[in-house]
Amino acid sequence: MSTRRKSISVLGPGKVPVRVLINGKTYTANLEPCITLLDAMREFWGLTGAKRVCDRATCGACTILVDGKREYACSLLAIDVQQEGITTIESLDTNGEPDPVQQAFIDNDALQCGFCTAGFVMACKGFLAEMPSPTPEEILKGMSGNLCRCGTYAGIQRAVAQAAAAIAQSPKHARGKAQRSRRKS
Amino acid sequence: MSQYDWPSASKRRLVGKDINRVDGLAKASGKAIYTYDVRLPGMLYAKVVRCPHAHAKVKSIDTTTAEKMPGFKTSYVIQKPGTEIFWAGDDIVAVAAVDEHSAEMAARAVDVEYTILPFLVLDANPLPPIPLTAYRKPMDPQVVGDVTAGFSESDVVIEGDYGLPVITHCCLESHGSVVTWTQEALQVHISTQAVSGIGGQLSQALEFPQNKIQVLTKYVGGGYGAKLAADRWGLAAAQLSKQAGGAPVKLMLDRHAEQQVGGCRPSAYAHVKIGAKNDGTLLAWQSESWSTGGLGGGSEPPLPYLFQIPNQRRQHTQIVNNIGSARSMRGPHHPQACLLTMGALDDLAAKLNMDPLKLLLKNVNLLAARAAVYQQEFTVADRLMGWSQRWKPRGTMSTGVVRQGLGVSMHSWPGKAHNFQCNLTINPDGSVSVKAGTQDIGTGTRTVIAIVAAETLGLDPEDINVMIGDSTYPTSAGSGGSGTVGGSGTAVRRAAVDALEQLFDKVAPALGTTADQLTVGQKTVLAKGGKASLTWKQACSKLGTLPLTVSGKNPGPGTLADSGVCGVQMADVSVDTGTGVVRINKIVAVQDCGLIIDHKTTMSQVYGCLVMGIGYALYEEKVMDQNLGQMLNPNMEFYRLCGIGDIGELVVHLMSGTGYDERGIIGCGEPAVISPGAAISNAVANAIGVRVPQLPLTPDKILAALSGVNS
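Above: the input entities. Below: the structure tokens describing the complete assembly.
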């Protein structure tokens, strides 16, 4: 965080021009310096996949990747991430084809109301990038930055394990071949 | 006479199988649009000025400074000067501005003066010296049999205190709406679990014809009982829109407000006395209970829970306090009644030096209903937990600093199918849609509708376009009481059966037979016993140019649903007697729920109940500042939800098959949330040798209970 702030002088009061690179595309707006990345994405750039829930870096519903690392978008200022590359949930499924992490969440019913889901999926993406073959204990620790009220944790534990296995097997294959959405018991 | 009944087990392709929810990708990709995500052209943002006092009278409201703030558009006084306010966080003024930041700044500039009045926010011990007469609403004592004789005939009598505090629903999507109110129409995107019910509330309160109101809720980020009303802030959003010339107004509660006023499960406390024979036969029950739940007072939990003890005296007092209004929450009243009863029975078992499982089984003849099912469920749970091999008396399960313990509980829930109407349309191109003014609050309603329609028509769930979340669709009840799965499942079944019969009438000539000789296969329509068949698409083309639309409803013909389920749970915990921290090792939940439509999402409901149950057993409490009357933890940092590492191993077993399936659908969204509090509390008592009287079982309470033992 400190490296980000070094390059920025005192801004405001009043709106300032902001440019942020999200999913490979540049987004611009004139924003109050106090506007968070989350609010900029949701209210100005139409990226509503990340959710605003606690708004205080507790629940993880706004999880995004900043240069590949997990961050809470509610607790970053938009003006502070103009040098970085942001990845959001909107980048994951290409042409309606689910990412292996998304498919794993669907297969394991690791979602109910779905309001925490985008955050959990992004947290899982970032976690598996850091730790591709986690043990069950490592999954519990590594995914502990997000909260779910419907109580989907058992499904999430299985989903993370399935996603890790799918990506390990063949990233390309796992991406290209979504599993059938219906499975008989 | 049409055959609506569910197909037999061998003929079910989809019903009861593990099927992925049909909106899984929409949610996992962030494409599902919730109310919080709605953005409309020219949309204004609203913020609410809230009363900081637990009890006050509004003296004056001055918006002149706010009106000069940049971006300000309009303001609406929700509660005028002179109005008495009964809880901190209540809505006073709503302000709309061009963006959220401007709305927040303008709201902060509103000047409201109050006359502060005395208040009560005590929950656990509302005893003197507080002048309680103003806050107490004692209810008439309820007496069954002869309680004095019951206790005198008892070999053993125990007395104890039990309780659980107010908790909040903590929906991740806060309450709120995006409202557009022009002269011609009122369109409301709202986070609700009652799509068809909101219009009437708005119409009455806003004096606007209901036939010009449209309520939209495509996705809702949690409800749990808290989102059944339009709410005062919803009406304020409409007024702001009208004042702003019909511009859309978005008003979502911020997290602080959501925790304060968006959810509140009443507390319950009781002093319980139970008398029994040495063999465990229950003879007498006496309870003095109270509960808080805001202005209305907390309602009475059904005590004693499940067991119809022959001699009873119950006296309940509602405590009216200044904490905000109670809202129904998942299995209303039952988790409270369950803890107050199962905790006391567990203490009785300890006094009798008896395995609590044996005590419960000893008294199955006193159960209000379904004794045989409970016995079967206990047998399964015993096997899954290894209870009979592992259980030992209190405080003797293990030695050392970290103590292990086992606890058991049981519960029941009605789960009756609610009123539901839908339209099922088969198009000449073979596509099928179902429309209903219902909602999917995460339980899987879309998926249930798709499965039932697909099963009946010989299609796949993905082939059904399920259109819900719009009040202009056929009317359905709000999602409460676990009634939606039964309502939607039965109504769609009836619609699909009727639609198929009408389709057969059109198709029969092409297959050279009569409609009663037709049946469906996998995406085909075929003549019984013969080889003549058409693909589903070919068959539907016989409809001609017009689609076939058939309505279905519940209640209706056929034995498709029932009510009354029961479940048992066992908890295995470890308690660190040095730090007071409780960890869940394992929970076993055995639950019946009639005919299962989607095994996968039904399991999820039970898992979810267990997780929510661990939360209120160990962590959750709405903590009130006794001096200021405000909630001290209106956030998600100090209002602690259960996390992924807190759940231990969850083992869920659904009772199904013969003896269960024939009953038809019974709702399963709530029952399993009832027992975890009691099962975990009992397991902690078993681990450390002493009852911790009140939930949540936080380290301070554990250590206090232990120090009581040691002293």
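Note for the figure: Confidence is low (pLDDT under 50) at residues 173-185 of chain A.
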